[in-house]
Amino acid sequence: MSLFQTPEARDHYSLKRLLQRLLVAFLLLSSVPAFALTEQEIADLQFMREEEKLAYDIYNALYALWGNPVFTTIASSEARHKDSVLNLLNQFGIADPAAGMAAGKFSSTALQSLYDQLLASGSVSQIEGLRVGVTVEKTDIADLDQTMAHTTNASILRVYSNLRKGSVNHLSSFSNQILALGGTVEGSGQNPGLAVYEPISQSLYIPAVVLEGANGEKLVYDALLRLVETMPVTLQLVNSTLTSIPYSADYASYSSATGIVTIPELAVGALNYSTLEAVRYSATLQLQTELSAESPTFTQVSLSEK
Fold first, then answer.
1. Domains and CATH numbers, the chain
2. pLDDT score of 165 more than 90
3. Tell me, what's the pLDDT at 277?
């Protein structure tokens, strides 16, 4: 800058230099993670990113084969799951191993081999396809338990905890589908009396909802609902299946006379794994459209801590 420039020119030059310095500072700060991660934490995040992609890809492939809506419903949750891990990769400046990978393709040779095996098994029959879902979710739960033991980072634990809760929900849903088709399941799912709201996919899974049949018999369904509005809180029923779970008065119930769903025990995803199971709620939902409608909706009437 010359001393002979006009005051306006000097002011413009100074402003330009200031903006350049701010831009450089921003780039430097944005390229450094808020918290340094260990090599193990980085490897775990990259692995979980591809494992969530595996679940998404395999469920879409099985839906194309068998047309069971449980596959596409859970695949939509897995889409949010894999995106939540991608957000962590971006937050910490970690390369995405799934970038540019087509459906059914993985950077990890172990996951590629697992996907190929699962697809072959799931192509045998619809029940075997559902068993693949059970295998994927059990594997996911075991891997998440291991990865959570490798970190103390609050952001990572929050995502992993919610992913695990989603896997427990999905495991129950696949297990109930198998039972409904006359199959058997070993060590299936969660407590049928415990409904779970999963924040990442914004879905509410109720493993057992009791309805009264035409002859007065007690029928037990499972139900998966997704949040569609927040004011008021409105959930849409996206999937429900008649199960073979024995009746219990402790389960959630639906009254056809009032259109009210009563949920006696509900867990909501928390900030970390250690407190995820600690808080319990009770809730009631009110039917807003005909239950026979294509996409019935319910609004939250009450939610109280127990």
1. 39-180 (1.20.1260.10), 195-305 (2.30.110)
2. no
3. 55
Q: What is the pLDDT of residue 115?
A: 97
Tracing tokens 């799934």 back to the chain, one arrives at: 98
Q: 111: closest CA among 185, 50, 167?
A: 50
For residue range 50-78, list pLDDT tens digits in order. Answer: 999 999 999 999 999 999 988 998 999 89
Which stretch of 73-87, 131-145, 190-204 has the lowest confidence by average pLDDT? 190-204
pLDDT above 50: residue 26: no
Mean pLDDT rounded to a whole number for the chain: 84
Distance (Å, whole) CA 265 – CA 283: 8
